[in-house]
Amino acid sequence: MSVDFRGLGFGAGSGGTGSGGKRWQLRELAKNEHLDWSIIKRVLKAFIPYWPKAILVTIIIFITSIGGVLPAWLTQKIIDDGIQKGQLPTVIILTVALIAAAVVTGLLGVWQNWLSNQIAQNVMADYRLALFRNLQRQTVNFFASRQSGDLVSRIINDVTAIQNVITSTLVGFISNLLTIAVTLLLMFKMDWRMSVLAIIVVPGFVIPTQKVGRVRQKIQAEIQQWLSALTVQLSEALGVSGALLIRIFNREPREETKFCLANEKLRDLQIRQGLIGRWLFMWLGMFSSIGPALLWGYGGWLVIHHEMNLGVIVAFTTLLSKLYGPLSQLAQIHVNVLSSVALFRRIYSILDIKPEVQDGPRTIPPNSVKGRLELNDVSFSYQHETKDDREAKLALCNINLTVEPGQTVALVGPSGAGKTTLLNLIPRFSDPVSGCLFLDGIECQSLSLESLRAQMGLVPQDPFFFHDSVYNNLLLANEKASQEDMETACQAAQIHDTIADLPQGYHTVVGERGYRLSGGERQRLAIARVLLQSPRIVLLDEATSALDTVVERKIQDALAFLLKGRTAIVIAHRLSTILAADKIIVLDKGEIIASGTHQELVEKSPLYKRLYETQFSLP
Ligand code: ADP
Ligand code: MG
User: Fold this and answer.
1) Chain-wide mean pLDDT for the chain?
2) Whose CA is nearest to atom 14 of ligand 1?
3) CA of 514 to the centre of ligand 2 (A)
4) Please, what's the b/e burial string for 405-422 (b: 16 or more CB within 10 A of its CB; e: otherwise)?
């Protein structure tokens, strides 16, 4: 007789990195968890769309629970009513029933599995989408202050763990409970004395299972720590920047020693974990023989004294496994529930983050935009989430600025002055703490983000490209662009020749791990991208790196084309751009300290004069 302990996580293997790891994480989460009904209610709500399936699953589980104990009862009948009384027809009928019960239960099990898997996958897909949607609505700053790895892990790993919640916690709970109930019912119906004996043996199963479970959990926690140490070391040592650092400081031997330590710890822990499982299996194996032995002994005595039929003993030995397996699993259910609550708490903590920038109701027809920008007493702080306003340091303070349609405004100032911060307010990557922005006299916050951003082209300081072809990266700006449009834009941005020379021309993959474009090339490709988009307003964060005269010339031409006839705010680092601007704003410590033309500023602003002498006048 075997007891089904599959649900307990005592796989024959040494466990560890795979699902064992996930289970450990869940347990770890459960440590400081309490039963939070508001979360449980929310989780149950997620199942509402699938309620017909959920009810069907419950019904099937109910039937299979009965089907599971049926063989024991039929066996007893075969022995006592068939064999003992010499009734062959009874034996045959009951044998057929035994087979039928097995087949039906098996088939229903498959169906149940299929249904609950469907529910699980659907609920998981819903959560993934909801998380992604909410994250999409967050501001750029949100991502600046968070580890992207952690967010990715929430969507991928946490949501995947939901499967476990549904299959082992929910389904497991219902089916174990039902199985135990039906089993006990049948046991007591057959013989109460034998039932009491069977129950007395229960702690022998449940206690060691729980004890070993706890030890394994502890070991798993250690394994997980060493694993994560190893992962961190690997990802640092095997990345380009880390590899460079290790080589230049001759750290290879020390890195190896560090690796060896973690590696050996892991080996030893895994061996220990494997051994603990074996002892438990030995113990359980032994107990699953001792239980029936006691039943045979006591039952035999009862049968000899004609107080009970032989078939009952046989039935009881079969029923034992239906009692002990589910009981051991139920004994762990609270950990499962608590860890599930903790898991969902993590998921909801992301789902509940309110986007800092809210969509507005108004839209403007794209062609009617003139492109007048106005900033009215605008202040901004990166810490405005903190409760204490006095602590919040202002990154921008009372900015007043008007840019007429078609005008170019150059922003200059030392590093950290707030230039990028100011630029990011225009397309509402963030909203000001106080003050207002207006586009053509309409308050920007009342506009829909889509219609606002459709008017804005952005060339960031270090332009990003997706790991995709040049062609597709350009398509991002304008889905309707043809190859010709692209070439025209790229020619204007002085990048066409470079692209044409790439191995696959416009279909060369660039970006993250693709072909490496130089800084200047990326900037010009980004300019081409904005040209394709053809927005009314251009926002440009100029690259700071010094360029040689040929490239400088090319960029100057590209920029001239980009800014022509458009409203533009340019963070300028090069004299040519500054000179081309209609107005120059000098920003320092988040405040506008001067504005005017180049000549005026050289005369009246010492800071501007210094910047000019140290930076702008460089080739
Ligand atoms: P600039 O572009 O003029 O060099 P920034 O606008 O990038 O300056 O930064 C202005 C100030 O805001 C700096 O003091 C900087 O440290 C701070 N800052 C920039 N980005 C963030 C952020 N995401 N969170 C908190 N502080 C920030
Ligand atoms: Mg900047």
Assistant:
1) 84
2) 416
3) 26
4) ebbbbbbbbeeebbbbbb
Q: Is 358 part of a structural domain of the chain?
A: no
Q: Which pLDDT score, from 0 to 100, does residue 388 have? A: 56
pLDDT score, position 25: 55
CATH number at residue 464: 3.40.50.300
111 C-alpha vs ligand 2 centroid, how far in Å? 59
Taking the C-alpha atoms of residue 197 and residue 325, their distance in angstroms, rounded to an integer, is 17
Q: What sign does the dihedral 535-536-540-546 (CA atoms) show?
A: positive
Mean pLDDT (whole number) for 349-377? 88
Give the range among 328-342, 353-367, 584-598 with minimum mean pLDDT. 328-342
Of 346, 347, 356, 348, whose CA–CA distance to 137 is shortest?
Answer: 356
Task: Supply the pLDDT for residue 24.
Answer: 52
**Bridge partners, residue 459, by sequence:** 540
Per-residue pLDDT tens for 156-211?
877 887 887 777 788 888 889 999 999 999 999 989 999 998 888 777 777 777 77
Q: What mean pLDDT comes out for the span 14-29? A: 47
| Closest ligand relative to 462 C-alpha | 2
Give residues whose Cβ lies within 5 Å of ion ligand 2: 420
CA of 19 to the centre of ligand 2 (A): 44
User: What's the pLDDT band for 391 if we cut at 50, 70, 90?
Assistant: low
389 burial via Cβ count (<10 Å: 0-12, 13-18, 19+): exposed
Establish whether residue 550 lines the binding site of ligand 1, counting it when its CB lies within 6 angstroms of any ligand atom: no
C-beta 415 within 6 A of ligand 1: yes
> Tokens 């107990």 sit at which residue?
287
Task: Please report whether residue 12 resides in a domain.
Answer: no
Q: What is the pLDDT of residues 38-71, one digit of tens each?
A: 888 998 899 899 999 999 999 999 999 888 889 9
Beta bridge partners of 586: 412, 594
Residue nearest to atom 7 of ligand 1 (CA): 420
Of all ligands present, the nearest one to the C-alpha of 587 is: 1
The residue to mutate among 421, 461, 588, having the most atoms of ligand 1 within 8 angstroms of its beta carbon, is 421
10: in domain: no
Cβ atoms < 10 Å from Cβ of 200: 11
Q: Does one domain contain both 571 and 528?
A: no
* 47's tokens: 């199942």
Domain that holds residue 485: 458-534
Residue 65 lies in a domain: yes
Burial readout 494-518 (b: 16 or more C-beta within 10 A, e: otherwise): bbbebbeebeeebebbbbeebeebe
Same-domain status, 451 and 462: no
For position 396, what pLDDT does the model report?
Answer: 93
The pLDDT, as a whole number, for residue 2 is 40
- Measured CA distances, 322 to 101, 337, 366, 619 (Å): 16, 22, 70, 84
